[in-house]
């Protein structure tokens, strides 16, 4: 079985394909954000951060599994970089600058840096697993 679509370098991704990739990144980020919003409303901030750090890789495993199985326009490393970059940019420009009006969240390894690393790892490993199950991608042939 081969991947649904031929893979492209990230720099040549345009139109619908780019929208699909960024849409998946947005869904993952939004679900992680929802985890924090609900968590901080019902438990302590520290507990919410722990739940978020556990939920983030699970969320991005599901999101990236869907992306790689249905679309797979980019390689696992490209996708992981895109997803984590999207999350970092949204956290910086929307959450920190607009909502919290503070960059304090970036001082917390549990609040940002650990989830960022886990998002990258879960996305990359999910992509590699899908590749392994479906055969080598065009970049590995």
Describe this structure in words.
It contains four helices and no strands. The protein is an all-alpha fold. It has one domain. Helix 1 packs antiparallel against helix 2. The longest helix is centred in the N-terminal third of the chain and has 28 residues. The two termini are 14 Å apart. The C terminus is likely disordered.
Sum up the structure in keywords:
mainly alpha, 4 helices, globular
The biggest beta sheet is recorded as: none
Helix content: over 70%
Number of helix segments? 4
User: Radius of gyration over alpha carbons?
Assistant: 16 Å
Structural class: mainly alpha
Quaternary class: single chain
Low-confidence stretches: 137-141
- Fraction of residues in β-strands: under 5%
Number of strands: 0
Secondary-structure element order, as H and E? HHHH
The domain tally reads: 1
In round numbers, the mean pLDDT is 90
Termini distance?
14 Å
C-alpha geometry? globular
């Amino acid at each position: 079985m081969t991947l649904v679509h031929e893979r492209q370098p990230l720099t040549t991704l345009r139109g619908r394909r780019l929208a699909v990739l960024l849409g998946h990144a947005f869904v993952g980020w939004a679900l992680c954000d929802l985890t924090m919003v609900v968590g901080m409303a019902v438990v302590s901030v520290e507990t919410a951060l722990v739940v978020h750090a556990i939920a983030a890789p699970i969320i991005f495993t599901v999101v990236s599994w869907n992306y790689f199985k249905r679309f797979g326009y980019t390689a696992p490393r490209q996708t992981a970089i895109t997803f984590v970059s999207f999350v970092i940019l949204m956290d910086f420009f929307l959450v920190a600058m607009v909502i919290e009006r503070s960059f304090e969240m970036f001082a917390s390894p549990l609040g940002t840096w650990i989830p960022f690393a886990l998002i990258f790892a879960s996305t990359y490993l999910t992509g590699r697993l899908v590749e392994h199950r479906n055969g080598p991608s065009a970049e590995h042939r």
